[in-house]
Write a structure and sequence with these properties.
The chain has 441 residues and is α/β, with parallel strands linked by helices. Among the domains are: 95 residues, no CATH class; 97 residues, 434 Repressor (Amino-terminal Domain). A 9-stranded mixed sheet has the order 9-10-11-2-12-13-14-15-16, with helices on both faces. The longest helix has 22 residues. One of its GO terms (molecular function) is triacylglycerol lipase activity. InterPro entries: AB_hydrolase_fold, Lipase_secreted. This is Secretory lipase. It comes from Kiritimatiella glycovorans.
Length: 441
Amino acid sequence: MRVAGPDAARVEGTATCSFGEGMTSRLFKWIGITACLWPALVSVPAMRITLDRGPAGEFRVRVRDGEETGGYAVLTRAGLGDGSWSFAGGADRWPDGGTEWTFEPAERSGFFRVRRSPRGEDIDPRRDSSYSRFAISLSLGPNGIDFIDPDYGVTVYTLSYDTFDHRGLASRASGRLCIPQGSGSFPLLSYQHGTMYKRSEAVACVDMLRAVRTYVEQTSSLSLNGDLYIFGYSQGGHATLALQRELETRHGDEFSLTASAPMAGPHDLSGVMADLMLGPQPSPDPGYSAYLLLGYNGVYRWFDDLSDVLVPPYDVTLPAVLDGEHTAAQVNAEMPDIPREIFRPEFIAEFDADPDHVFREALRANDTYREWVPAVTTRFYHCSGDTTVPKENSWTAYSNFFARGCRCISIEDPGPVTDHEAGALPCIEAALQWFETLRAR
């Protein structure tokens, strides 16, 4: 559909969509969940779309398709042959659960499309395994976990479900669901791991929660008691705070969040992490910089050729190991100790000089503490000796929330470990013990 001029009238049409990614969590004594990602092809019903111009020249888009669930994205481009579609108002705005939007046109004329993706629907469960209470207890000790005494065995499922990816396309995602072998009413515990793009990781987590709730209600002898606890470590800490924001600001009438425990998350990407990734000092995890640059370029589309940003040989060697098949250690092995050495000098000079550089803007857009404050009890966990994701990330988020009047937050240091990986178990132990005290009330 094309709209031209200030007096352009209504246009009606249909829209279709394509494919994508996802994520979510787990544990015993709780009904728990975890997730991963994959692409698939999904079709959606025809939509009736109306477009008009407001008094200030803004576009107003309305959708009517008779569907009560799902998510929408509005995309634009200047002409049918003018490259790829871009999100109206920016990628971080979508998907949206409403059916009416206003946005400023980038050009005086152009084309637009509306995509609808089903969310948390078309659930495909697969039973993976089953563990008795004894088997669980036997496996925990050798793995250094002495703070869990399981009350039940668990049956483990993989749930596939519909969601929305970072391109605004319909996707199939999967998550792990652990159901206690018993009877009664249970809370839901969600453990996140993330992608560092807060919008898509939060959306996929919400849709996993929907899929779990539907599956348990329809097939299990257990019931959910309405309590929801969320936590995650490292990238999962980032995903947890992103999910909390999504639940509180967009899904408060659908889910009642009980408590949140973001653990050692890189919440201040544009500040603390930017200084660590692109500063002149060595980094304990140098591959982090390349991971974010290439990942965010897939969302924000700054450049087509890596050689425009990276110096040889990194423009060739890094994409080969950032393929989802190589470990973090293998990626780090391809990096110099000082991450900024992979970048062209002009890129670093522009980044250092411009507070609104496109990479810094993308990092800022994915800081998890901006433009909202928690309304639900939230406790940050972060080991003070962490050098990979420094504790200042959690303190920055905490301080910003507190300065804006939030008093339902706290922060705790579970131990002075100096290694990011070694901090995981102390944080998880402290968070679970805290959740148990809340359950006992």
